[in-house]
Amino acid sequence: MHRFFVPQLFGDEMTITGVDAKHISKVLRMTIGDELQIVSDDGISALGKISFIDAECVKVRDFEIIAESHEPRVKITLAQGLAKGEKMEFIIQKAVELGATSVVPVAMEHSVVRLDGPKADKKVERWQKIAESAAKQSKRDIIPEVQSVMSVKEMLAANDCATKIIAYECEDQTSLKSALKNAIEQDKIDDLLLIIGPEGGISESELELARSAGAVPVSLGRRILRAETAGLVAMSAIFYETGDLGEY
């Protein structure tokens, strides 16, 4: 079932316009009476029937509210060190599919990519479109936000989650599993900031900044993971440990 996010409060009739309307009419070739899912700005998911359709506008009525939530219990903000080429697009797409609530592109000392000003804004705009597409495909109830490109200091100040975890390849004392167990025991698992470095890794000064903000350095295991792999592995482990993978 196709799902579309409609930027209006839920009502008896919802109107889909723009690119989505064109996609419904011209690509999917849907007609009056066909069913689709909508998600409103106030977070209501519903199954409805098309009552009017053309290339510019699709109207949907006769709704049945979908009570089941597709959102994880733990809200993860993924702070990802800027990665080269199309890796950031891959990371954002897969992080949204897995269940990230938000993604922060972070300009780190060892990042090869340098983004600022209009170039950064243009990239974020593209990344947000990728997040929206992934949210539709994976039946999310929200469109996760791709935040502006930030420094480590800015990211820590803007994302004050109950639990902060930073994956650090030199860490040999604390595992991700033990850090999560501690957060669960302290009932600090509702929102979590996960910090992942770029290809060149996290610098010692960045690690200390994160520590001073309350972040716990953790190991992701005995093998060194690529920048585009580490965050996705860590997110999967977090959702598994908190009962969000394999449960209904």
Can you put this structure into words, describing what you see?
The protein has 248 residues and is α/β, with parallel strands linked by helices. The model has no long low-confidence stretch (mean pLDDT 92). The strands form 2 sheets. A 6-stranded parallel sheet has the order 8-7-6-10-9-11, with helices on both faces. A 5-stranded mixed sheet has the order 1-3-4-5-2. α5 runs parallel beside α7 (227-241). Helices cover 34% and strands 24% of the residues. It is elongated and about 60 Å long.
Topology:
Elements: E1 3-6, E2 14-17, H1 18-27, E3 35-40, E4 45-53, E5 57-65, E6 75-81, H2 87-98, E7 102-106, H3 117-137, E8 145-146, H4 152-158, E9 163-167, H5 176-185, E10 191-196, H6 204-212, E11 216-218, H7 227-241
Parallel strand pairs: 1-3, 6-7, 6-10, 7-8, 9-10, 9-11
Antiparallel strand pairs: 2-5, 3-4, 4-5
Helix pairs in contact: 2-3, 2-7, 5-7
Rg computed from alpha carbons, rounded to a whole number of angstroms: 20 Å
Q: Count the helices. How many?
A: 7
Extended strand count: 11
| H/E series | EEHEEEEHEHEHEHEHEH
Proportion of residues in β-strands: 15-25%
Instruction: State the strand order across the main sheet.
Output: 8-7-6-10-9-11
Distance between the termini: 19 Å
Helix content: 25-40%
What class do helices, strands and sheet pairing give?
Answer: alpha/beta
Question: What's the average pLDDT?
Answer: 92
How is the biggest beta sheet arranged? Answer: 6 strands, parallel
Outline, from the CA principal axes?
Answer: elongated
